[in-house]
From TrEMBL:
Its main location: membrane. GO terms for cellular component: phagophore assembly site membrane. InterPro entries: PROPPIN (IPR048720), WD40/YVTN_repeat-like_dom_sf (IPR015943), WD40_repeat_dom_sf (IPR036322), WD40_rpt (IPR001680). This is Autophagy-related protein 18c. It is a peripheral membrane protein.
């Protein structure tokens, strides 16, 4: 893979520190015969027997990882290409998480993996072709999230947060039943924020680790189905199992800043993406449409032409928005079309005055797709049917997005029956 991001020097430290940490057992993997790729078969070809088990973006959406029944693969998005793959005989991986573009990966075996069951997390250094750490749990791992200084392991009822440098257990968080493994992290080095389900239905727990502060947000009446943070962790977007509304919150004080409507029928929300410039929000669902919304949240000192630097800036109004919420909302700049009947909102159902999507892109229904933002007003989409799309949107007029690229990166029979 690409250049190791400071972990080569820390490998020996990591291995020296490995030991017994309840409730996870940490072991080292010797390089060579006992590594997860000791039985690599480099010559596998795509065929109907290769099943796509998992896809996920890296932290800056420049790459995505695919876990298959035979190993894993890494793809670059722009230009689209497979950068490398690891194939093996003894089963694949149900979770593959990248750390930006470094050689560090977190791997969880698929259910058919005879060597690494789904209750183990492997921290894999592909530069050295060896495992530098292994976490074993009593129950199945639902998700793993990475940032440069943290490893987060999500089980159905608990989340464990580890320090990346020495694998020390830092935090344990109890959650409501979380079979989807919902959890997200900020990625800016100067903010350390985690969002996950709370202990009550519809509640989101926000951990501001740098501030030693916990915030509970009652986001929905129904259970949380999907959530995501901005890169600095100061804005949160959520959807419930009802799937009709997406809400945006200030994570510092829990204030609801905006609400947009995907539709009026119940839907299963697969992904929520927030653009790095904090101008756009994209939502994918089982209805076969990616909806794009205009955010009315703005960064201090930035306008729509220069907002692209927002991902670099830790300073957003939401730091003190409890006293200056008006500055967070652009009162009339939202491009989301409201209903022309909004003047009758006291009589008509609430959804007539909701903010509807600004642009849309249509996909096969029921297939799981996850969306992210590319460069220059584009949305990139990866599907569990082995497809990759790039589409562009008109930032002024909206409407139907235009397909710019389509790639079938894996021939698989994951389509719904």
């Amino acid at each position: 893979m690409l250049k190791n991001e400071r972990f080569t020097k820390s490998r020996d430290l990591i291995i020296k520190k490995l030991g017994i940490l309840p409730p996870a057992r940490l072991d080292t993997c010797e390089s060579g015969v006992s590594g997860p790729f000791s039985q690599i078969e480099p010559g596998f070809n795509d065929n109907d027997e290769t099943e796509l088990l998992f896809v996920s973006w890296n932290q800056d959406y420049g790459c995505f990882a695919a876990g298959t029944s035979r190993g894993f693969r890494i793809y670059n998005c722009d230009p689209f290409k497979e950068t490398f793959r690891r194939d093996l005989k003894n089963g694949g991986f149900g979770i593959v998480e990248m750390l930006f573009r470094s050689n560090i990966l977190a791997l969880v075996g698929g259910k058919a993996n005879s060597q690494y069951p789904p209750n183990k997390v492997i921290i894999w250094d592909d530069h050295q072709s060896r495992c530098i750490g292994e976490f074993s749990f009593r129950s199945e791992v639902r998700a793993v999230k990475l940032r440069r200084d943290r490893i987060v392991v999500v089980l159905e009822h608990k989340i464990y947060v580890y320090n990346f440098m020495d694998l020390k257990l830092l935090h344990q968080i109890e959650t409501l039943a979380n079979p989807r493994g919902l959890c997200c992290l900020s990625q800016n080095l100067n903010t350390s924020v985690l969002a996950c389900p709370g202990l009550r239905r519809g509640q989101v727990r926000i951990e501001h680790f740098g501030l030693n502060m916990t915030k509970l947000i009652n986001a929905h009446d129904s259970q949380i189905a999907c959530l995501n943070l901005t890169m600095d962790g100061l804005l949160l977007a959520t959807a419930s199992t009802k799937g009709t509304l997406i809400r945006i919150f200030n994570t510092m004080d829990g204030t609801r800043l905006q609400e947009v409507r995907r539709g009026v029928e119940k839907a299963d929300i697969f992904s929520i993406a927030l653009s790095p410039n904090v101008q756009w929000l994209a939502v994918s669902s089982d209805k076969g449409t990616v909806h794009l919304f205009s955010l009315r949240v703005r960064v201090v000192g930035e306008d729509s032409a220069t907002c692209s630097s927002a991902v670099q800036s830790p300073a957003m109004v939401s730091h003190n928005s409890s006293s200056s919420l008006d500055a967070l909302i652009s009162p009339s700049t939202s491009a989301n079309p409201g209903s022309s009947l909004s003047f009758m909102k006291g009589v008509l159902p609430k959804y007539f005055s909701s903010e509807w999507s600004f642009a849309q892109f249509h996909l096969p229904e029921y297939t799981e797709f996850i969306a992210a933002f590319g460069s220059q007003n584009t949305v990139i989409i990866v599907g569990m049917d082995g497809s990759f799309y790039r589409c562009s949107f008109d930032p002024v007029n909206g409407g139907e997005m235009l397909q710019q690229e389509y790639v079938r990166f894996l021939k698989t029979d994951n389509r719904p029956k």
